[in-house]
User: Which sequence fits this backbone?
């Protein structure tokens, strides 16, 4: 690459602001949460070194275990239901069937609305006295259900509404399907393969990298879930809808910083593990 | 043979019917709650209590104006615009500079920079609530739009640098060499050649960052206290607590909060879809 010698320091100057902000907003907080996760610390006393005591306490804490279990369930359900459904719709719409643009526009729509506004809308749907869902239940002569206040169904309701918002994953996979060389399909057509056979034997194997992206994202979104439970249930009833981020938020507001930081470290480790694992699998196959 | 062909036809008809049922059901699932919310927001509370499904006798358009005024949403929308645009402008300028440096100069620290970028994309940032909060309380940046702008500009750096660098790598360096011979200096080349010619990268990164900032809730909620400083997303949280019994006004307010996102989506649909998707795939 061509560069005058005296220009080199200018490039370093160009890099500097981003590096400074990266240190302030990524590196420093990362070191901070790791170090402080080993201290007992509230707002009123100086921090006190405790080794792994915060972590040991976390795993004994039923609320945290509930949160961890909920996040894993959330991630698992999204990976098992949302991703395959999105793939199916991507396969269908990629054939440019009648109205495919309309369907793509509609399915992607929830993606541009903020998580908190979506949750607010669904709180209206789930409302005990006048909500849409109980309106339907009453229409069929049933008794209204306290969807978000019932320990049996609250967590299902919180996960369920986002499960059919498949537009994001679908569009990611459609982008890769569009890039597949058409000669594969021409050859398959000559061999008399049906649409379903072409999908299974050609398209799906060819889009495995975007499939892996979607699986990763599903896992990451499942681990990060916050707005839904914060607005709809605040973790209740009886912690049934607690998540890790909400747990950190609540411990922070209760000034139990050591525990909150230990939970944050676990969240970071899980996030990085999931992403690098899926990347490795994809890289290994290529 | 005849039987086989027939059963295959029947099978494909069933598949086709199932396909369309699924397509339409998912579309209804997405649109219906939004439409229901909108229609309900046009009713009176009395009408709503009678039946959640009826249509309003006369549409109460003033519900939207009432909600807008009593929830202070004009202010919140302006705040969101200021914060999101401020953050995106700073983010794009710094990302562009950094991406240019990474793309044009072989540092010894190049590997470390790539590691840092992918680390930045992978970390669940909600884990940093405590350090950000403590840092901002020390720096007196709590409850300030400048603090939030800096935060948003920074946390979107790894993704933006990643996207823009991809565009800069494909930019032909011969053009720059020719311009250099013609006497165009370093900054001239950057601002007058590289930026205009890689603007698609900036549009993609900017779209991704803008939507992320506009929709961000966790840190806006954590950092901003004063009512006059709320963004539209923290406003949603506030009025769901405030209008608990005045349902139609609450629903009208939620509609107003969603409206700007939908407007941007319908105006720049292709851009929004590709901006959000490219970010995800590359990250």
Assistant:
């Amino acid at each position: 690459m061509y560069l005058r010698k005296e220009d080199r320091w200018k490039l370093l100057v160009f890099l500097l602001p981003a590096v400074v902000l990266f240190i302030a907003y990524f590196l420093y907080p990362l070191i901070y949460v790791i170090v402080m996760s080993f201290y007992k610390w509230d707002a009123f006393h100086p921090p006190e070194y405790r080794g792994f005591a915060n972590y040991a306490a976390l795993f004994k804490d039923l609320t945290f275990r509930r949160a961890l279990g909920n996040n894993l369930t959330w991630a698992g359900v999204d990976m098992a239901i949302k991703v395959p459904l999105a793939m199916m719709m991507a396969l269908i719409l990629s054939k440019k069937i009648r109205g495919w643009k309309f369907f793509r526009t509609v399915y992607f729509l929830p993606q541009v609305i903020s998580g908190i506004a979506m949750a607010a809308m669904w709180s209206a749907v789930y409302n005990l006295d006048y909500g849409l869902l109980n309106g339907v239940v009453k229409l069929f002569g049933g008794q209204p259900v306290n969807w978000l206040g019932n320990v049996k169904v609250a967590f299902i309701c919180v996960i369920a509404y986002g499960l059919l918002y498949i537009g994001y994953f679908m569009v990611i996979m459609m982008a890769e399907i569009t890039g597949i060389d058409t000669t594969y399909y021409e050859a398959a057509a000559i061999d008399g393969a049906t649409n379903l056979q072409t999908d299974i034997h050609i398209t799906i194997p060819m889009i495995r990298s975007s499939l892996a992206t979607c699986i990763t994202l599903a896992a990451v979104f499942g681990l990060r879930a916050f707005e839904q439970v914060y607005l709809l249930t605040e973790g209740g009833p009886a912690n049934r809808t607690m998540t890790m981020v909400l747990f950190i938020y609540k411990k922070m507001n209760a000034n139990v910083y050591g525990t909150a930081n230990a939970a944050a470290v676990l969240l970071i480790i899980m996030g990085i593990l999931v992403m690098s694992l899926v990347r490795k699998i994809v890289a290994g196959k290529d | 043979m005849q039987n086989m062909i027939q059963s295959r036809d029947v099978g494909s008809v069933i598949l086709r019917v199932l396909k369309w049922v699924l397509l339409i059901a998912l579309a209804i699932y997405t649109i219906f709650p939004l439409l229901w919310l909108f229609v309900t927001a046009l009713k009176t509370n009395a009408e709503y209590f009678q039946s959640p499904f009826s249509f309003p006798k006369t549409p109460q358009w003033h519900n939207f104006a009432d909600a807008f005024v009593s929830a202070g949403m004009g202010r919140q929308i302006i705040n969101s615009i200021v914060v999101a645009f401020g953050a995106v402008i700073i983010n794009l300028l710094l990302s562009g500079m950094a991406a240019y440096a990474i793309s044009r100069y072989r540092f010894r620290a190049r590997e470390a920079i790539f590691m840092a970028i992918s680390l930045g994309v992978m970390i669940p940032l909600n884990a940093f609530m405590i350090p950000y909060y403590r840092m901002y309380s020390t720096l007196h940046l709590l409850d300030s739009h400048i603090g939030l702008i800096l935060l948003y500009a920074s946390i979107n750096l790894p993704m933006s640098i990643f996207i823009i660098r991809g565009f800069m790598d494909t930019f032909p360096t011969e053009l720059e060499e020719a311009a250099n011979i013609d006497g165009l200096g370093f900054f001239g080349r950057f601002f007058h050649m590289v930026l205009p010619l890689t603007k698609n990268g900036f549009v993609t990164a900017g779209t991704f960052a803008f939507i992320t900032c506009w929709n961000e809730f966790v840190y806006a909620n954590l950092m901003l206290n004063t009512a006059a400083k709320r963004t539209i997303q923290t406003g949603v949280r506030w009025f769901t607590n405030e209008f608990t019994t005045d349902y139609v006004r609450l629903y009208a307010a939620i509609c107003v909060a969603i409206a700007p996102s939908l407007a941007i989506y319908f105006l720049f649909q292709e851009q929004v879809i590709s901006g959000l998707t490219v970010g995800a795939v590359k990250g």
